[in-house]
Design goal:
There is one protein chain. By secondary structure, this protein is an alpha+beta fold. Helices cover about 50% and strands about 15% of the residues. The protein contains 12 helices and 10 strands. Strands 1, 2, 3, 4, 5, 6, 7 and 10 form an 8-stranded mixed beta sheet that branches. Strand 4 and strand 5 form a beta hairpin. The chain is globular.
Length: about 450
């Protein structure tokens, strides 16, 4: 009997015992209990179905499909297209109506609500970096579109945005570097399901002065495949992950990415490890103890250039999340300083306050322009190493400063959970710390 069958059996036995209890009638709570049982059983069966998912390649063979470069516009223009503008507006509405109200509870629980994950799957986020031939929604490279999507979602909450976009990053990585078999095996579960498989890019490691280009996690060749040993940290939805793209040092070769299915490996161990920020993403540690992987688990033939490109794209994705969260800070402090009265006048009448708000707006605009410029160069197939490094340095430093200034502008209110600024400050600190987790 497998895990799914055992879980279903336990759930049915519990349902039978509670439904047969006379205490429910005496307390007048049968209707409410049955309603809760129905909801819990329904959600439990969904979770069991996800836990029992098996990745199998489709029968249609063929080479890998790749997205072509973006069509040049002929002029330097970072204004979004009509399609991008419509996507951004719809995601901003979803972030305002769904993510923002759910954010405090998700931060407290250190986990994203299942209904948010389901609703996010309906938005088709995993399709933004995948060719139409593979079930995606684009015909050319669209890093700018992914940046706009990340900014819009992070305006609601960075932690929930990370939980929703991590599978999209895995799908984009498979579209960029996966071979035909890898794409046919894993992409259907990411772009063809109502709730995409829980997937993420696992690069971070729990050690001082961590360099993502020199991972301590090691992959050794053995028996026609590989054996993986090491620990990854700050992995989104670590305990429920179904697919991880793990960064490891391949002996005698260099850094590489490996496809790992934690549910199918007994030697993959995960534990929750909530951090200071992005707590809604349910981050955790994942340990690999002699995990045997087949030969086709190596992504993109292990080319070190792919690994370097992956690290850069992940850093740009964090810039997108910084933009959305920093803009949330600005949108919150402007009405606050205009409505907060001290000594007979709004505090925005004081130059120190007004100049601080202006500085936030100026720095945010610089962060956005640097990020979009780097993304546009990626889309055109140009080298964006320098531009991504500049955008990341700017977003990490100024993003943290904007979070701190937001707390300062609210005074004592900025330090308590009645206002979301303290959470945004904690989240913005992650931009200069996290490596991997998602990419554009």
């Amino acid at each position: 009997m497998n895990l799914a069958e055992r879980s279903m059996g336990l759930g049915l036995r519990a349902l039978g015992r509670i439904a047969g209890s006379n205490a429910l009638d005496r307390l007048g709570a049968r209707e409410r209990a049955e309603r809760l049982l129905y909801r819990g059983t329904r959600d439990g069966f969904r979770a069991v179905g996800v836990a029992g998912r098996v990745f199998t390649p489709s029968r249609n063979g063929g080479p890998a499909k790749r997205l072509g470069p973006a069509r040049p516009r002929g002029v330097f223009d970072l204004e979004p297209t009509d399609e991008q503008r419509m996507l951004r507006e719809s995601l901003e509405q979803f972030a305002a109506e769904k993510l923002r109200p759910a954010a405090p509870g998700a931060d407290e629980a250190c986990a994203p609500p299942q209904e948010i994950l389901a609703q996010g799957g309906e938005l088709g986020l995993t399709m933004l970096g995948v060719p139409e031939e593979l079930g995606g929604a684009v015909g050319e490279r669209s890093s700018v579109t992914a940046v706009l999507a990340g900014e819009a979602l992070a305006h609601g909450d960075m932690g929930l945005a990370l939980a929703l976009q991590a599978p999209a990053g895995a799908a984009a990585a498979l579209a960029l570097w996966g071979d035909g078999e890898q794409q046919r095996t894993y992409l259907p579960a990411l772009v063809g399901e109502d709730v995409p498989a829980a997937a993420a890019l696992a690069l971070q490691e729990p050690r001082a002065l961590f360099d993502p280009l020199a991972p301590a996690t090691i992959a050794r060749r053995a028996g026609g495949g590989f054996v993986l040993d090491g620990v990854k940290s700050l992995v989104p939805r670590a305990e429920t992950a179904e697919l991880l793209l793990v960064g490891a040092r391949l002996e005698g070769h260099g850094p590489a990415l490996f496809l790992v299915e934690p549910r199918q490996q007994e030697r993959v161990l995960a534990r929750p490890a909530p951090a200071m920020g992005v707590r809604a993403a349910a981050t955790g540690d994942v340990r690999f103890e002699g995990v045997a992987l087949p030969a086709h688990a190596l992504l993109g033939d292990g080319d070190p250039a792919i690994f370097h490109d992956c690290v850069r794209r992940a850093r740009l994705a964090w810039c997108a999340l910084a933009l959305g969260t920093a803009r949330a800070v600005l949108d919150h402090v402007i009405p606050y300083v205009n409505e907060r009265v001290a000594f007979g006048e709004p505090i925005s009448h004081r130059q120190a306050v007004a100049f601080t708000v202006s500085d936030i707006a100026i720095e945010l605009e610089g962060m956005r322009l640097a990020t979009l410029r780097a993304a546009s160069r990626l889309d055109m197939g140009m080298d964006a190493t320098r531009e991504i490094a500049l955008a990341r340095a700017l977003c990490a430093e100024r993003g943290a400063t904007i979070g701190s200034q937001g707390v300062q502008l609210l005074g004592g209110h900025g330090y308590i959970k009645d206002h979301p600024v303290e959470r945004w400050y904690r989240d913005l600190r992650a931009v200069g710390v996290f490596e991997g987790a998602l990419l554009v």
